[in-house]
Design goal:
five-stranded mixed β-sheet; two-stranded antiparallel sheet; about 575 residues; about 10% strand; 9 strands; single chain
Length: about 575
């Protein structure tokens, strides 16, 4: 057995729960050209014994057949006397599959020969093998056009090696080496390894996209490989009992896949986006599992803090909380988009509780924390909870104002957490600590206008003018009404292609003044008018929105630490 098969065998044996095999096996069948008519999750709890997966495919004898696949994993991965004869055991499953009819509208479904296959990522124990084979032969002799088979760990290893891993993932020394290093090092840092970035690049570079009426098998297998990689990373993270690993790596996978789609103008190609949907849906389920595990902790008093971080926790608690809220808000937005906002009340209460229980939720340290604040405020506004939005704005402004007045600190506009740590430890601002201009304060001042908070505006205006803090926002050159498109530096990629591939820098800083005629203060109504007039400063027709994935932009902003663009809040409708 070569090294590739050893890796594949070890991976398959690591699937310790039946539902893990349930998720990965359909990927193999699709890569083999099977048409899947039902999957395990579709018949959970229904009397479809012996029919975990029903599919149509070409058998080894080149005859088109119906296939009933019965999957055995977890404690039943090995076939033994106990699970052969036991309740809902293999003997019972094979009998039920043989005689209970499966109804399908697939053309000529009932006329096709039937093959029933036991699939298990283990072995058959010697003591039961003769019994199993005798039962299969006797049952087969009593049926017409029906045959049986068994795919064990050896057969699965060969199939996965040849049909999935062998097509792209472990087809050459380079991808094999990269993949191995990804698995070995996935838990060694707080981000993703460069090997994972390179692995996806290498896989995508193996094929040149050519437009055709039908998606070629090579591209289908490449997309199936993405699904497989996602599942393997998920499985590895569960081995470490750390779904944070899967969250990080799958985030990059989703963003990379969507960037490739945008780059090739395929966002409206249903044959391609079908595969993206499958990758994203798996990512979404991983996020759900991650938050189901962690929300009980986050809902404790200061639950997101760590008692083992020492002095770093002054910074670490805040950073961890804002990162957590970023992805939690993303999950809520996805949930609201697909489920028509039916769970808004529950989601609103969850968000409020996490903020209330974690005391640093309103204490930004770097300017990019504005993205978390914007996400929270926009959700409160969309929930119709305007008072909560106002309360949260007040909390954040109070924290910023207090830190400046007592510590001479406002969030670092260069977004360097290292700068904040040095300043916290030494009390001396590093050379590259930037607080003369504050984008985060600019955003919050605009929210004061949107939420009609005149009293808070007057307090903060006096504070900003007294402390001589400049207000400015990052605005891309790419807007519909832009007069600076000639200044775009990256002419190879449009705004979204940049957004989904790197930290976006192709823009300018738009200044906001709280005075008029150089020295006269703007009153609240004048400021509101100014902000209203700024609505047209940046508008853009996003291909990602038009394709039906508006929430994906938030993921890219968060991942690459790109500040939200002004249309994120200026287009809000507040009723």
């Amino acid at each position: 057995m070569d090294i590739k098969n050893i890796i594949v065998k070890e991976y398959l044996e690591s699937l310790t729960e039946k539902n893990e095999l349930n998720r990965i096996f359909p990927i193999l069948l699709e890569s083999m050209g099977f048409t899947i008519l039902s999957k395990p999750t579709e018949y959970l709890g229904l009397p479809e014994y012996g029919k975990d997966i029903v599919a149509i495919g070409i058998d080894e004898d080149n005859i088109k057949k119906r296939f009933y696949f019965e999957l055995k994993g977890g404690k039943d991965r090995d076939i033994t006397d106990g699970n052969f004869y036991g309740k809902d055991g293999i003997q019972d499953s094979l009998t039920q599959a043989s005689y209970n009819k499966f109804v399908s509208a697939f053309p000529e479904f009932d006329q096709l020969p039937l093959k029933i296959v036991i699939v298990h990522n283990g072995v058959i124990k010697g003591s039961v093998q003769a019994t199993f084979e005798s039962f299969v032969v006797a049952t087969q002799n009593n049926l017409v056009n029906t045959s049986f088979d068994r795919w064990d760990i050896s057969r699965l290893t060969l199939l996965f090696s040849g049909k999935l891993f062998g097509e792209y993932l472990l087809v050459d020394p380079k991808t094999t080496k990269l993949f191995n290093r990804v698995l070995v090092n996935s838990d060694t840092n707080d981000g993703i390894t460069s090997d994972f970035v390179d692995l996806l690049e290498v896989i995508l570079s193996k094929e040149e996209w050519k437009k055709s009426k039908k998606l070629s098998r090579r591209w289908q297998l490449l997309f199936e490989t993405f699904k497989l990689i996602g599942f393997i990373i998920y499985t590895e993270s569960k081995e470490y009992n750390n779904l944070e690993i899967a969250k990080r790596y799958l985030t990059h996978l989703v963003i990379k896949f969507w960037h490739w789609i945008l780059k090739n103008n395929l966002e409206n190609d249903k044959a391609v986006t079908k595969y993206f949907d499958q990758v994203f849906n798996f990512y979404y389920k991983v996020l759900l599992e991650y938050f189901q595990r962690t929300i009980p902790i986050a809902n404790l008093k200061d639950g997101l803090s760590s008692e083992h971080s020492g002095r770093y926790e002054q910074i670490g608690y805040t950073k961890r909380t804002f990162d957590y809220l970023d992805y939690f808000c993303f999950l809520l937005n996805v949930e609201r988009f697909y489920n028509k906002k039916i769970n808004d009340e529950s989601m609103h209460l969850q968000l409020v509780n996490i903020i209330n229980q974690n005391s640093v939720s309103s204490r930004p340290l770097i300017d990019i924390h504005s993205s978390t604040i914007i996400s929270i405020l926009n959700l409160f506004i969309d929930f119709g909870e305007l008072q909560n939005a106002k309360n949260y704005v007040k909390l954040v402004l109070r924290q910023i104002k207090y830190a400046k007045e007592n510590l001479d600190f406002i969030p670092d506009a260069n977004n360097s957490i290292e700068n904040v740590i040095r300043f916290t430890v030494t009390g001396v601002k590093p050379v590259y600590f930037s607080d003369s201009t504050s984008p985060i304060l600019t955003v919050l001042m605009e929210y004061l206008a949107l939420l009609d908070m005149e009293e808070e505006y007057n307090i903060m205006k006096e504070f900003i003018l007294e402390r001589k803090i400049d207000l400015g926002l990052f605005v891309p050159h790419h807007g519909i009404n832009s007069t600076s498109t000639h200044l775009v530096k990256d002419k190879e990629n449009d705004l979204e292609e940049q957004l989904f591939s790197k930290s976006f820098r192709d823009g300018y800083q738009s200044e906001t003044r709280l005075t008029k005629n150089f020295n006269k203060d703007l009153n609240f109504e004048e400021f509101k008018k100014k902000i209203e007039n700024k609505k047209t400063e940046f508008k853009y027709n996003y291909r990602t929105n038009q394709a039906g994935y508006p929430f994906l932009k938030d993921l890219a902003h968060n991942y690459f630490q790109t500040p939200f663009f002004p249309d994120k809040w200026r287009n809000l409708i507040i009723s």
